[in-house]
Amino acid sequence: MSEKELNDILKELTEKAKGARKKLMLLDFDGTLVEFTPKPSDTEPSEELLDLLFKIAVACENQLVIITGRKKDDIDRMVGRLPVDIIAEHGAIIRENGVWGILINALASWKDEARSIMDYYCRICPDSFIEEKHFSIAWHYRNVGPVCAGSGLEDLRMALEELAGSNKLKILNGNKVIEVIDPVINKGSATRYFLNKHDYDYILSVGDDRTDEDMFCVLLNLEHAVTVKIGDGITCAKYRLDNIGQVLMLLENFKITRN
Ligand SMILES: [Mg+2]
Q1: What kind and span of H or E run contains 76?
Q2: CA angle at residue 27 from 22 to 197, to 5 degrees?
Q3: How do residues 29-68 score in pLDDT, each as one tens digit?
Q4: Which residues are catalytic?
Q5: What is the CATH number of the domain that holds 214?
Q6: pTM for this structure?
Q7: Which of 4, 8, 140, 232 is most deeply packed, by most CB within 10 A?
């Protein structure tokens, strides 16, 4: 988008927040606040980002929630020192007022079978790897060659779809990652949890991935909700920004300005 288009969108989104006394901000993490890295554990948020999030979180009118598919310990390592609420594992786990707990419970006995399928593809696709969470399991193929990322992925997907069909599970196709999860766990349910807690008069929701659509859809008919999709692809978000840099420009408008 042109500089003028960007400025117009940023101005419009900021104007909508003017006068709001209780703002909810639901921010996805990877691809929204930080760039993807070869391995999830490689990600290190910059001090500038942490400082910006801190200055948003301490403004008394803001409730800042980081809402991510990452494991609890992983996201806690990166943003745990901030005074924010955190939703981890796509909505399953919550840190609220500094205390971790389970927000949505689900059976996970099917994970053994999913793991053995993924183990097989890890052996034939070197540089792919498994990420195991409490209620889901993911196969990352960001670092594999084109043959594995093509036919290997398709074979794996078919095997997982069979497992998903017989166990009523959902397959999430993320950015170079395929994940199996119970469909009761999603960012939409986590969003509803926050909506039921308070009457917010401004809601900002930002994300880049298919999993963020569940959050956008829950907010679709709320007039005071601003939903922002990052990058290309079909979305039910009302606005779109091109990249993380533009998200950070938007967020600058919500930080506390006094010292
Ligand atoms: Mg993301």
Answers
A1: helix 72-79
A2: 40
A3: 999 999 998 888 899 999 999 999 999 999 989 999 999 9
A4: 28
A5: 3.40.50.1000
A6: 0.93
A7: 140
